User: Fold Homospermidine synthase from Legionella shakespearei DSM 23087.
Amino acid sequence: MNPSTTQIVYKNKILILGFGCIGQAVLPLLFQSFKLDPSQIVILSKHNIGADVAKNYGVQFKELAVTENNYLKLLPSILGPGDFLLNLSVGVSSIDLIKYCQTNKILYLDAGAECWEERYRNDNSKLPSNYALRDATLQLKQKGPTAVLRHGANPGLVSHFLKQALWNVAKDNNWKGELPRDAVEWAQLAHDLNIKTIHISEHDTQISAQAKKEDEFINTWSVDALIFEALRPAELGWGSHERHLPHDANHHGFGSNCGIYLSQPGAETRVRTWTPASGAFNGFLITHNESLSIADYLTLKQDGKVMYRPTVHYAYHPCPDAVLSLKELVKRKYIPQKDKRIMLNEIVDGTDELGVLLMGNKKGAYWYGSHLSIHEAKKLANHNSATSLQVAAGVLAGMIWAIKNPERGIIESEDMDHEYILSLALPYLGKVGGYYTDWNPLQDKKDSKEKHIDHSDPWQFINIRVSEPE
Assistant:
């Protein structure tokens, strides 16, 4: 039950904001890794879901929604300088919480970018993109208490998988340089290895003993968060090698210009990808922060002009019931189902295979990541599925890094020491390794005369996207 050998002494308070699937998954890991008294942890949640879990650990649980109108009065009553705000909420502004923590010398970590729910409850079309949220947050960068942005599994651990994968491929190509130390050196390595496209490639095969019902949305992690992401326009980091801008592509017109977004939601955008256990499959291109942060991190410029950048995006195949739920959601014209269920104890089998797929190197595409079964996850930590434990491992590792590096200001996953982070997370990730493949998205289209194909370069996005609109 306890992969940790030595507990870390931490004497300050931890406020867990939001206690859904991931909050409940993280709590056992905190007590495994830190020497804590239950009185040091306070949980705020707008629902009473998980209250029994908190009670089992002797942790204070308050059923209370954090809103734009009350957060400035609420947070000072719980947190002081040196304390930690772990933001695992949905519908609470990450930017406003970060500003508060920076001003009040409080450590911070979140697993995703969020806005105030009440501002957009009746009009999701006005929700800012991940690109816009990231740009606005990075403008706050200054010296101060550490705030780790978007550090679960993905975004989060996958950025550390990426660095390890690049280094593995470099060694396999007899690369003679030293381990890169900063963004420019990592980008130069990716360029030298001819990495054109990077997928955050995930296939969840976990199944439940309880069948999905009509008008029910099922998932292995937050239903609300998946719906929120899937209904937003698909976003991706846009590579310098790309020759075919999608017909429905849009540029943001501000910031680093590292990404584009499509005029259709992720729930209706499919891409071809690959993982070792599942082989080739089609996944959803759902907007995620790491698609932009990785693309930006691996950008090389000369005299202000982009000389190299890979295309980066998420390629996600949720669990079978979640796929059915998404299809039903689209048929309902995006009106969410009445009932929602997060699978946990009723999961009887399956794995979550999560990693990065690097494409373009002469040795073939290379996948590096975690293959974690539900059976392994249950042995490693209570209140976890394979999916939630991968996320919780990223959250835990990011928290430990922040506590040991308390004055680093606002930090993205790519700015952190990947070897240290992976050493903390690996005990919870099942089988972790790298695999080469001869797969490419044109393998079943060698003789095809389809309009939207570029036979000269398999790694063009036009080949990876399942269908290109007219």
